[in-house]
Here is the input.
Amino acid sequence: MCETLRLAGIVGDSITDGPGLRATVFVQGCPHRCPGCHNPQTHDPAGGYEKTVDAVYHEICRNPLLTGETFSGGEPFQQAAALAALGRRLKDAGLEIAVYTGYTLEELLAGGVPHADELLAVTDTLVDGPFILEQRNLLLRFRGSENQRILDVAASLAAGHAVPDTSGRWDAV
Here is the structure.
């Protein structure tokens, strides 16, 4: 049986959802419902449309210029198993994987989110934390509010705690 994703949409060539030229998969459904969210249309888990992991993979791989893939939303960790399957295939195709989540890394590591470990295992960079309208900062690159962190997932998993991304790629202009 082929896994499916509930999607809000796919952007095939983004420069705003992480460094480089990326595809962005916007999943449908979000339990956080952050006030001021810039994607409120993705909150309803019954909205959007379904597409197989295989079909999404082939759509993304049509663009040979991509350097990365971003999973955004909605809340990607609500569909962690299917996104992990897609992420494994995209990493094998040479793409860097980033995930935006309203959860903190600590919440994901605590074990309360099903299959979070699978999605973290294929994620290179995690932008974590809910959007907080009172901490909104339009000068931040690739984040919406001051509380959100850009984390190196491999280093974080090895250390057992959040490790900021120090590659400079997410800070470069």
